[in-house]
Specification:
40% of the residues lie in helices and 25% in strands. The chain has 181 residues and is an alpha/beta fold. The chain has one domain: Rossmann fold (3-Layer(aba) Sandwich), CATH 3.40.50.360. InterPro entries: Flavodoxin/NO_synth, Flavoprotein-like_sf.
């Protein structure tokens, strides 16, 4: 069984945690990567978000209202200097298990996650979602992901942003429990 971690995360000012150099969801992805040795494919917005939380919320709401399909860039974290997009494409194509990480924004995954989901073939893949949130939990995002991909979406892991940033041991325990380690 081959796996890959696909994650969207945002640094800078985050809800309830202030300014951070690594986003909440990225912190959880790092723990999953350490436990699974899976490479990380990072989804990035083609146009960076504002550094402030309020500025990001304003943009997200506007883009959601306008029905924007977010442009994305991809960065591979696999410890090599090969062409990042080719390496990400190969890692994704080989994987049968995808750990999909994203924050909950306005009750849904970021638009960049939807762009990634629509742009890939999910045939035969199992998705294990993991999220960070400020108290909302998953909402209907697993059903949303299943509808976009047709993949087998399994029960996920939800971690609050505060825990992701401030309690690495709790994140490790939660990941270990979720993975059955």
């Amino acid at each position: 069984m081959t796996s890959v971690i696909v994650v969207f995360s945002r640094a800078n000012e985050n809800y309830e945690v202030g300014y951070v150099t690594e986003g909440n969801t990225a912190k959880v992805a790092d723990v999953i990567a350490a436990a699974t040795v899976a490479p990380i494919i990072e989804i990035l917005p083609a146009e960076p978000y504002p550094t402030t939380y309020d500025g990001t919320v304003e943009r997200v709401k506007r883009e959601m209202e306008d029905g924007v399909e977010a442009a994305i860039a991809i960065r591979m974290h696999a410890g090599n200097d090969a062409d990042a997009s080719a390496s990400a494409d190969a890692a994704f194509a080989e994987a049968d298990t995808v750990y999909l990480g994203y924050p909950i924004w306005c009750g849904v995954p970021p638009l960049e996650v939807d762009t990634f989901l629509r742009g890939h073939d999910w045939t035969g893949k199992t998705i294990l979602p993991f999220i960070t949130h400020g108290g909302s939990g998953f909402k209907e995002t697993p059903e949303h992901i299943a509808a976009l991909t047709g993949a087998d979406v399994r029960p996920g892991l939800a971690v609050t942003g505060v825990v992701a940033q401030r309690d690495p041991e709790a994140v490790r325990r939660a990941v270990d429990g979720w993975l059955g380690a």
